Amino acid sequence: MRFRGISSIGWVSIFALGFVGMQRHLMSQEMSLGKDLYIRHCAVCHGEAGQGNGPAATFLFPKPRDFTTGMYKIRTTASGQAPTDQDLLDTLSRGLPGSAMPSFSYLSDKERKALVNHLKTFAPSQFEGTQDQRGIAVGKAPLASPEVVSLGRKAYVKAGCAACHGESGKGDGPSANALRDDLDQPILAADLTRGVFRGGASVRDIYLRFTTGMNGTPMPSFEETLPEKERWALAHYVKSLSRSKRPEIPSQLSNALITAYKKEGLSDDMSPRDSIWNNIPVTSIPLMPLWQRRSASRLLDVRAIHDGKRITLLLEWEDSQADGLIIRSQDFSDAAAIMLSMTDSRGHFSMGSEKQPVNIWQWRADRQMDLARFRDAEEAYPSMAVDDYLFDRARYPKHKKTGLTSSAGTQEPIFLAGYAAGNPMSEIRRLSAVEDLNAEGFGTLTPQPPLDQNVQGHGIWTNGKWKILFVRDLSSSSDSDAALKPRSRAPVAFAVWDGSQGDRDGQKSVTYWQILELEK
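Request: output the structure for the sequence above.
Response:
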């Protein structure tokens, strides 16, 4: 037998081919991971092809970003340029405060990088040759001072900012109602007084927005029209406009731990005013308005306790007026909801999915008002007339002593088909201000049967703020209820509705998934 050796060049070639093959395999794995993450977390809004037309897009204003254009608003690159990979990573990690774009900071670095690479495949020509692209150079921000802020005010006037954002920065300038983006979709001018900024709330972040502009929107770059000194001063001035006394919102919140603290001897008639809540740590969660407007609550405060038998959550948020009377078609109720995942692997925060259903507890102000006294049409129209039966021989009115009434609560159920059939939408005798529901995605919201309605709650409105209690026994015989027990963890999200702003159904402000943990 003869042995034929392989030359050193041959060995090098083999190793080189193996290395290239391994690289291709790893790249293929990363692309597959990015696509899977996109389908799981992003496609519901942005669509599987990245065109901004996912199932949730119908319920969102402004519409989700169309990734096929390659245009991104929040960047550190010059106006009109594609973002850097770090820009996209920062947006995924931070989210876009004040919008429906959540933070994906709970994903690993590897997962977020894979997601960024997949996003770039939707507009390959825009990202061609940008692998080594870097953001613009940013110098050191000057310290805030009355002189700097005064210069910033002059720059605000010089740049014509008031045309869109208004003289006081409330987003109510003369051009505000006519603004449209590059896709001819309506867009709101930011209310600078709220202290909520899409790309971050630091002076540096605001300076970058003035310098780079926001691609695809009417917000231009002022790099060539305002000197650097004036742009820094303008950033300080805009930051000074915030009227909020609460902390700024630098990023969206996801996966925050909300602890339900163990407390013995809780009373059956707890109130949002009880002193026990003063000693319970609060988790403040930025609210994400799905249908943006100039006035919206910024934060939701959450506290939770349990006594081993029941869990109680207290939700608080700012609302300038209480809305609960919804007799007229143009009126809507204030409301709040807690959404619990029924599975450990949570679904999308937009009402769950078939494989990852959710359990929802919704409190509504109108339901609470009905507990005290059922309200019907005559509540809103006290001088209304009531039709009589056309073919009845008795003269109108037949009931001279009591008169006629339109209230459903005084009628025989036989004449109220929905009520007689047990339709929860026609129910006139409320047992709780809270309704226990389930969902498996859009259009599937379903109330549990009357015997399974085991969540109680009530709220108070005081000093421009709602305070709502939700109470449920930890043990439940219903398979439709989220499982809760000491030492357990459950994905949880929240929503609030502002009736005076026209909120109803999918028009609301929401949070992303957080973690509810019951203390042992």
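DSSP finds twelve helices and 14 strands in the chain.
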